[in-house]
Amino acid sequence: MKFKILISLLAIIAVAGCTIPGIPGITPGPLLGTGSGLEITSFTAQPETVYSGSTVRIIMEVENKGETTVSSGKSIAYLTGSNIEFSSIPSTDMVWHDTSQYQTIKEMKSQDVVRGITGSTDRISWTLTSPTIPRGQTRADTFIGRVYCDYKTTSQGSVWVYSESEAEASRTAGRSLEKSSFTSTKGPVGLDVTVQPDPVILYTGENTFSINIKITNLATGTIYKPSNITYDTTSNNKALISDALNKVKLNITMQTGKIEITTDECKGNIEQELVAGRPTTIICDFEIKEDLTSLTFKSYPISVSIDYGYFTERTATVTVQGK
Question: CA 268, CA 213: separation in Å to the nearest integer?
Fold first, then answer.
């Protein structure tokens, strides 16, 4: 049995505005690619310049650009930033304050590209009271809006298996052998499933094949273990420990009794890590359990899915003037 994890290297390319949002105390790093899911399409402060003791609305607009409906209980909007407190009475008049740091996101229905239907949108807002700044002075504060969400990305397809004699007969007749074809749902983390060899040709004494599962962060956010945070507005702890970052749960399903996984690290709902957020390829071996003496050719359906949490963020800046 073999198990290999191949981690491809990313070129370090500086791209303006393309960063991985980090967690407090961790500097964001560069990331290339595009993905789909819950996206913050706008994050603005209105107005952008205010006097001490004024109110500012922070407005976040979210759209579901993925192919999976996200329930309200699996996502949440979060606001943080410099010099901000969330309480009815702030500890000092030098900070911004509001009563609620978290906002519920409504159920976000998925888009349907085939029928030309866009995904759901939602608008979330916070109303903040500005701090007191000495007369004649100004201060610029930055606010960070973040969306946390749990996702599932699924790739489905079939593995074609031929006997040696059938493969030779097809070549002699000039017919092409069928190859595997896997299609994935759109999400911020991508699944690319390939078969080796493809198609599978079983020679005398052989009954195994392998699939390669490549997992890639396609968007500009951060992956974390699914259900690692609570998606409610009453819990104040949304911190993600380092051990929770860049990890997904992998699950493979197939026809019971027809084929089975022989790689232990691929069995069940297994945790897989994308080291430093880089693309990772997992190789899983399978054994055909059927009697192959009368095999000509056959296809075996396989479904690969990953469950994971994901967050993206945007920033906005407001300048306070003393009076």
Answer: 15
Domain count, the chain: 2
Cα 175–Cα 299–Cα 162 angle in degrees, nearest 5? 50
Contacts of 194 (CB under 8 A, 6+ apart): 180, 182, 211, 212, 214
Residue 103 lies in domain: 12-150+310-321
CATH of the domain at 50: 2.60.40.10
In this prediction, residue 193 has a pLDDT band, given cuts at 50, 70 and 90, of very high
Per-residue model confidence as pLDDT tens digits over 80-89: 998 999 988 8
Tell whether pTM > 0.90: no
3 occurs within a structural domain? no
Alpha helices (H) along the chain: 164-172
Q: How distant, in Å, are the alpha carbons of 146, 264, 283 from that of 5?
A: 31, 13, 7
CB atoms within 10 A of CB 249: 17
